[in-house]
Specification:
The chain is built from eight helices and no strands. It is mainly α and about 240 residues long. The radius of gyration is 19 Å and the shape is elongated.
Length: about 240
C-alpha cells in the first residue's frame, strides 16, 4: 500500500501541491497575524474587533480559516488524483495492474488524506506559533485562548484536523457520482457553509458531538465510494 501511495504522489507531481500548500500556509499566517496584531478586524469607530458570535478569541478564526482552506484544497486534490483520472481514462492503465481496483482506489484516497492531514497540522502549528511569538512584542486584538505547552492543545488540534480532512470524502463521493471534478470542489464549499456558517448565535461547530457524527458520515461515504470500484465502469 505504501508503494502505491508513493506512486500516486510521484504520478501526480506532489511537489506542485507541496509548493501550493506552503503558499497557502504563508498567506493564512500573514492574514491571521494581521487579524491579531494589525487591527484589520477592528471596527473603525470603536477600535474593537468586529467578530461573529463565537469567534471572539484567536483560536476560532485560526480553526475557521484553516478548515475552510484545507477542505477545499483536499478536494481539489481528490478531483485531480481520482475524479480526473477516471474522466481522462488514465485509470485504465492503473486498473490493468494485477492489483485489486479497491486497493488502488484506497491508495489514491490515502495519498490525498495523508498529505493534507500533515499539511493542515503543520499550517495550524505555524499559525499558532506565529501568534504566540507576536504576543511577546505586541498586544493582540483577540484574546489568546490556547496553550502550546498543553497536551490537550495537540490532541484537539489532531482531532479537528482528522475531522476536516476526512470530511472531504463526502465531496469525493458526490464528484464520483456526478462524474465531475467541478462537483467535487463545489461540494466542498457547500460543506463549509453547512459546518462553519453561523445562524445568529447558532453554529454546528460549537457542538462537541457534531464532529464525531460528521466523521462517521464521511467514513460511510468513503466506504460507498470504495465498495463499487470493482464493478463500476470507468467514466
Amino acid at each position: 500500500m505504501l508503494k502505491l501511495i508513493k506512486l500516486e504522489w510521484k504520478k501526480n507531481n506532489i511537489g506542485k501541491y507541496m509548493r501550493n500548500a506552503v503558499i497557502l500556509a504563508a498567506v493564512l499566517c500573514l492574514f491571521m497575524f494581521s487579524l491579531a496584531y494589525l487591527g484589520i478586524a477592528n471596527d473603525p469607530d470603536t477600535g474593537i474587533p468586529d467578530a461573529a458570535p463565537g469567534n471572539n478569541t484567536i483560536s476560532a478564526p485560526i480553526e475557521l480559516f484553516t478548515s475552510m482552506s484545507f477542505l477545499v484544497f483536499t478536494n481539489v486534490m481528490h478531483a485531480s488524483f481520482i475524479v480526473s483520472a477516471y474522466k481522462n481514462k488514465t485509470m485504465n492503465l492503473m486498473f490493468s495492474y494485477p492489483i485489486k481496483r479497491q486497493k488502488i482506489f484506497v491508495s489514491q484516497m490515502l495519498a490525498v488524506w495523508i498529505f493534507n492531514f500533515a499539511a493542515l497540522i503543520l499550517t495550524k502549528l505555524l499559525l499558532y506559533g506565529c501568534i504566540l511569538l507576536g504576543s511577546h512584542f505586541m498586544v493582540s486584538s483577540f484574546p489568546l485562548d490556547f496553550d502550546m505547552t498543553s497536551l490537550g492543545f495537540y490532541i484537539q488540534l489532531i482531532v479537528k484536523s482528522v475531522v476536516i480532512v476526512t470530511m472531504s470524502f463526502i465531496a469525493l463521493f458526490i464528484g464520483m457520482a456526478m462524474k465531475s471534478s467541478k462537483a467535487t470542489i463545489i461540494s466542498s464549499f457547500l460543506l463549509i457553509v453547512l459546518t462553519q456558517a453561523n445562524i445568529g448565535d447558532l453554529t454546528m461547530a460549537d457542538h462537541a458531538v457534531f464532529p464525531v457524527i460528521l466523521t462517521l458520515i464521511s467514513l460511510v461515504f468513503a466506504f460507498f465510494s470504495i465498495s463499487g470500484v470493482e464493478t463500476k465502469d470507468l467514466m
